[in-house]
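Hi Q.,

Before the meeting this afternoon, I wanted you to have the zinc ion prediction in hand. No need to reply - just skim if you have a minute. The sequence and ligand are here:
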Amino acid sequence: MINKVKKTKADKALPFEIAGQVVAPGERLQFDVPTANLYTNSPLNMPVEVIHGRHPGPVLLICAAIHGDELNGVEIIRRMRSFRQLSRLQGTLVLVPVVNLFGFIHQSRYLPDRRDLNRCFPGSERGSIASRVAFKFFNEIVRRCTHIIDLHTAAVNRDNLPQVRAALDEPGVRKMAEGFSIPVIINSGLIESSLRCEAGKLGIPVITYEAGEALRLFESSIVTGVRGIVSVMRTLGMLPSIRITTVRAEPYIARSSSWFRAPVDGIFRPLSKLGTRVRKGDTLGVISEPFGSEESILVAEADGIIICVSNLPLVNEGEALFHIAKFERAGAVEEEIAAHVSNIKGDRLYEIETVPVTVNGATRGSNDDK
Ligand SMILES: [Zn+2]
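Predicted structure with the ligand bound:
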């Protein structure tokens, strides 16, 4: 398909039809897809934007907030919309910044039927609200696409190291995952009724980008996401390739991963940071009695890289505190992650901490003072 895109570069794309809308080549269109009604009779409309290139190519869906409280992806899509090179797009970009509107409004992962939307695909026209939202999204949007990047964060009170999760043996998936150019890839199995699994059954390659925490915006996670998506688009031939001037991250694929769980109840203090390497026997953190002097030292049981950490100090025995991924060359992965973080902070997309401020009517970057 990619070769065909290159060969037919001069060809003009046909109008693109999706969810009852038609988008002409070289045009972009915003519209709402009605999904379900609330019991107040208010419609739950899913906003969609389609950017249709002048020349034919893949149809890439980028979607976020399937879990309504996971916000980094919403901001990633907002920034993607104004990416200047989209004027040279080959193929079609379908942007759905908030799939689970109800959860987004209520700052919740779920829908009013308490279902997890990412366990309801391909959905049902006659099911409860989550199944019906899933059905509309799957049939009106997902089926029209050839590739998908699904954006997520960790759950509330957990922080994920930016990572791609993908079933690498599925057709077309490895190319997208490696194309994301991120240090950590988790070769992760498919969960039945998830978007990744059900779209995969249609032969659509899907990768999931996981970064940061629910209900928070993390600037480095956002920039990593935008850069990763643009990099996948270049890999798929949707944007022109560029000469790489920055250090290109070599993705490392985890062999396996496991959770370190609290051995006792109490107040948890992490001592090992996200993205760092731990060795068997290292101190991961401490759990202390809230009203006593007993302390339990948490000792790593295996080597690996910390890819998720709990931010909540109040823990019960058995709670998941650290997610540790095992790699063939953990030292090299740790170095790559550190290089990637400093690279991201120097990126012109890095915005939140360097946003222009207005002083007496004049606009200047907050970095100007440094
Ligand atoms: Zn999620």
